[in-house]
Amino acid sequence: MHDPFEESLRDLLKSHTTTHDDDATLGRVLKTANRQVGVGDLFSLMGHCIEALMIALNNGSAHVTPVSRTSSPRSADKAD
Question: Is there a contact between 13 and 30 (Cβ–Cβ < 8 Å)?
Fold first, then answer.
């Protein structure tokens, strides 16, 4: 299965520098991984906010129905 996240991490680990520094390589890999996971978390948070908004709109829509304010003939007969 093709996973672009895994491939990017492998490419970062395979990149060769003249002075190979494991700490720097690990730092780059972790920084990239944290950035990609953070973006996924933001999209997940936005999805949950939209879901909550849709639930609130659905539950509140029954309370916003228009009310007719015309007087009915029965209410005019009460004074008789």
Answer: no
Which pair of tokens denotes residue 34?
A: 């944290």
Cα separations (Å) of 73 from 15, 26, 66, 69, 76? Answer: 86, 82, 20, 13, 5
Q: What is the pLDDT of residues 12-21, one digit of tens each?
A: 777 765 566 7
Is residue 29 within 8 A of residue 6, CB to CB? The reply is no
Q: Which two tokens stand for residue 29?
A: 């890999």
CA 41/CA 38 separation, integer angstroms? 5
> Per-residue DSSP letters for 17-73?
-SS--HHHHHHHHHHHHHHHHHHHHHHHHHHHHHHHHHHHHHHHGGGG-----PPPH
Higher pLDDT, 7 or 19: 7
Task: Tell me the residue type at 48.
Answer: H
**φ/ψ of residue 44, rounded to 5:** -65, -40
